Every structure is written in structure tokens, then in C-alpha cells.
Amino acid sequence: MASGLARKYEINADMGEGFGRWKMGPDEELMPYIDAANIACGYHAGDPSIMLKTVRLCKKHGVKAGAHPGLQDMFGFGRRKIEIDPKDMYAMVLYQVGALKAILNSEGVELSHIKPHGELFFYMQRDETIMRAVLEACATFGDNIPVYASQNATQEAMCKELGIPFQGEVYVDIDYSPEGKLIPVAQSKVATPELCYERALSASLKDEGKDNSGGIFSFGFEGKPFSICVHSDHPTVLQNVTGVRKAVDEANKQRFPDAAYSCFYTIEVDYGVFDGEAGGSTKLEIWVTDIQGVESRVGEIWDVESYERAGKVKAIAKKRGISERASSTPMDKFEGEDWETARRELEGRQEEKAHQEEAADQEDRTHQQDKAHQEEKKAQQEENRVLRGGREARQEKKALREEKKAQREVKKAQREVKKAVVEKNKAFQEKQKAADDLQTRKQKKIKAHPEKKARKEKRGIRENEKALQKKKKIFRDKQKALRESINALYDKKKTRQSMSTERLRSG
Questions:
Q1: According to the lineage, what is the superkingdom (predicted)?
Q2: In 9-59, which ranges are E strands?
């Protein structure tokens, strides 16, 4: 039997569907609830670092690791229709699954299964040439690697033809059509945790589902175990998977009561530790075996390099009737242990290790954040310096423009003053000429009437002199006001020049 096939009702979920710093679903929180993970391979989502991290999560939680190839459409999350040549499709599936297989090999984890993602799955159902291209690519990874899909007679027959195990699955968080066909996520209604529980229980115990119009249809599993898919990108996925886990456990107790796992230990003891000598080590491994006789190592503890820990292992061995053996002898398997106790013991150590790793990761993240903050601060300072330099340059240009404007105003004022002086001189000359003409006429009158004319002439001269003195005084006052105006303009220019020089020095 293929190792990736379900031997009882199981839960699978799409994992690693992020990219860089962007994360899609709560992968680590989902791991304790699922049996198999479909790991995105870099086309619709995922990148090398995320793929490696997800494989390590599967290894840590004892979850089967499968490939989840999709269309090369990260922007559309692999859910948009794209026309692809079958030869290219074959190469694309090889490329994606092969990349994940290399990462699995590096971590000592087996490739459990292959499950096409999103539009690639629907493309296979619409076009049998695409279906064959995908399945032929899957067949290159071995005849014991099942391909997951909803019940489909055509695909199941083609898998049999190519020698590939077919693993049926059910979806409980998206809808089915009246024909029993899957409806894409975008066209399905949002499923509640209660609905997911009811759908999972109905599929497991009754082999029935309800379509989007309320009708009942049969899945056709006829009592065979299958896997239930939960989409990790749904907002209520943690609540959904809790309900599905409850339904699956209830159904497994009724349908597959003998499929519960039994546990056994293997203990390897180095006598050097018990004798208190330097060196030596103790290893405790925990294994499980299911009703099919398939054995899986679910964990090991190597943190036993002290006399105290070795004594505890020795006491455990003695309590279970295990004789001490040298590390060079083959390990013995001891059955009949309480799996729950063993699991809790192992999970406790794993949780402690996870906390330590999380603390180290948190410290590293804090360091990276501090470093990023410093770099951001430095970049901000540089940006401020550039902005400040630009602002100072703009201020300098503005000051120069103001200085030139002030110079133009001073020149204009000088021209106006000169013009006013010329006009006043001209007016004064005209008045002087008029006075001279008046004097000439008076002299002529005096000659005609000497005495009378002489008196009038003297009186006129006195009046003219008096008026002239008054006009001269007015003219002197105006000249004084003009000089004061010119001095004020020069003071204003000098003030502006000093302010501009001060700004340049401060910059």
C-alpha cells in the first residue's frame, strides 16, 4: 500500500502559500489538527525559504508532506484560466514537484502525495490531454505516490492506467454543484465552522453531500477512507479545522476503530553514562505502528548526556523489564505502551524545544528589526539632509531674487528722484524768468512815472523777495525729504544684504 494513502479519514490542508514576507494562512497553528500538508511549490505561491520552513513544520508535527503544484500565476494565486501546451504543463509539474522533492530529501522526509492546486485541478477536469500531462509527470516520482483529487471516474481510470495510486478527497469549506462537481472558491459561499463539521460528518458516516441548491448526492467512496481538504486561506480556517477534526475523530471511532496507533519505544544506552565516565550518550526513540503494520518514527530525544538523565532512562527501562544493552547491539522494540502518555511526553519536549527556537527566532527578529530600524533611520537622515540642502538652495535663490528686486526698486527710486529734481529745477527757472519779466515791466513803468513807479517797484520787489524766500524754504524742505527717502532706500538694501549673508552663513 502506498504510504501516502489514507488508512482512515484524514484532514489535508494547503500550506506554505506565501511569498517573501507575505504570509497567506496560519500554517503553524494548523499543523496539530491535520494529517497531510499540500506544500505550494513556487508557482502560484511559495518560495524556497517558505518551502523549507513548511517541510520542517511537517517533520516537527509528524504531518505527511505532499506537493501542491499550480499554474504559474502568483498574482492570481493560481486560480485564473491560462491556456498551456500539454508539453509545457508536463515540464511545469516536473519542475515544481522536483524542487520540493529536493528539499524533502535534504530533511530526510518522504514525498507523501501530489495534489494539483486551484485552476490546475479544474483545467485537468476540462481537458484530458492536460490531465494526462499532469499525471504522467506525477508518475515519474514513483508508483507509490498517490495523486489527490475529488471523486472522478476519468482521472481514477487514468491513474490506474499509469500505475499511480488515486486518493479521493472531499471539500467541506466550498460548494458542490448538483452534479457533484466542485465549485471554485470565488463562486462558493463562505462556510461556517458548524457547516464544516456537519459536511465532514455526513461525508464520513453517510457518504453523502449537499449541493448548492440543497439537493443530496453521493460521493461514492463506499466505505473507503478518504481525505478532507481544508483551505488555509479562509479567514475562519482555525475554527473550521477544529470542527472538521472533531467530526473526523468521531467518524474514525465508528468506521475504523482498529486504525488507532499503538506505540513502542526503542532505547539505546551507553554504559559509559551509567558508570559516570566521561562521554557516552543515551537515545530514546518513539515509534508508532498502525493496523496495517506500517511503522513510523515520530520522534527522538538526544538531550541525554548527563548521569541524572541516564539514570531516569535506566529506571524507565527497568520498570518496563528492559535489559540494559550496549550501544553496539541492535535496538529492541517494546510494545504495549500507552500512546497518549508517550505522545504527551514527546510533545512536552517538542514544545519546550519549540519555545527555545521561538525565543531564538524572536531574538533574531528583534535584531533584524533593530538593524532595519537603524538603516531606515540612517536613510531618513540622508533624505532629510538632501531635503535640507534643497531647501537651503531654494532659500538662497529666493534671497537672491529678493536682492535683485530690491536693487531694481532702488534704481527706479533714483530715476524718479532725478526726474523730480529736473522738474523742480525747470519750474524754478520758469518762475525766475517770470519774476525777471515782471521786474522788467516794472522798470519800464518807473521810467514813465518815476516816483509812483519807484514806490510800486520797491513794494513789488519786497513782495517778490518775500515770496521767493518762502518758495526757497519749501524747495529746501522737499530736497531734505527726498534725501531722507533715498537714505531709507539704501538702508533697506543694506538690511536685505546682511540678512542674505547671515542665511548663507547659517546654511
A1: Eukaryota
A2: 10-15, 36-40
